[in-house]
Amino acid sequence: MAEAVSSLRIVRFATFEVDLQSGELRKAGVKLKFSGQPFQVLAILLERPGELVTREELQKRLWPDTFVDVRSQSEHGH
Q1: 14-32 residue pLDDT tens
Q2: What is the CATH number of domain 3-75?
Q3: How many CB atoms lie within 10 A of CB 77?
Q4: Is 11 exposed, middle or buried (0-12, 13-18, 19+ CB in 10 A)?
Q5: What is the mean predicted confidence (pLDDT) over 56-74?
Q6: DSSP-based three-state secondary structure for 25
Q7: Burial 42-66 (b: 16+ CB within 10 A, else e)
Q8: Fewer CB within 10 Å, N or C, the chain?
Q9: pLDDT at 74 over 80
């Protein structure tokens, strides 16, 4: 289960630490290269630990003004 330190916006789980404010991911204190959309997806999931986040919710958060055809994603195995 993720442990959140809300005032600093830091989430810790296993040997990982995520600083949602600075956009940094560390494993055992070592900064990892992990940014952009993958980091945004991680941040969204960490906001709701233990809850299901649907593909539609992710699409709305990551691409709010873009139409994504779910049928074409399914056809290509996404």
Answers
A1: 999 999 989 999 999 999 9
A2: 1.10.10.10
A3: 5
A4: buried
A5: 78
A6: strand
A7: bbeebeeeeeeeeeeebeeeeeeee
A8: N
A9: no
Instruction: Take residue 3 and report the two structure tokens written for it.
Output: 């442990």
Tokens encoding 63: 């691409």
Instruction: Tell me which residue of 8, 7, 10 sits closest to 46, measured CA to CA.
Output: 10
Q: Three-state DSSP class for 35?
A: coil
Given the structure tokens 């709305």, which residue do they identify?
A: 60
Contact 22, 71 (CB under 8 A): no
Task: Count CA within 13 A, CB hemisphere, residue 51.
Answer: 10
Token pair in block for residue 26: 């560390």
Tally of CB atoms within 10 A around 18: 23
Give the H or E element holding residue 24.
strand 24-27
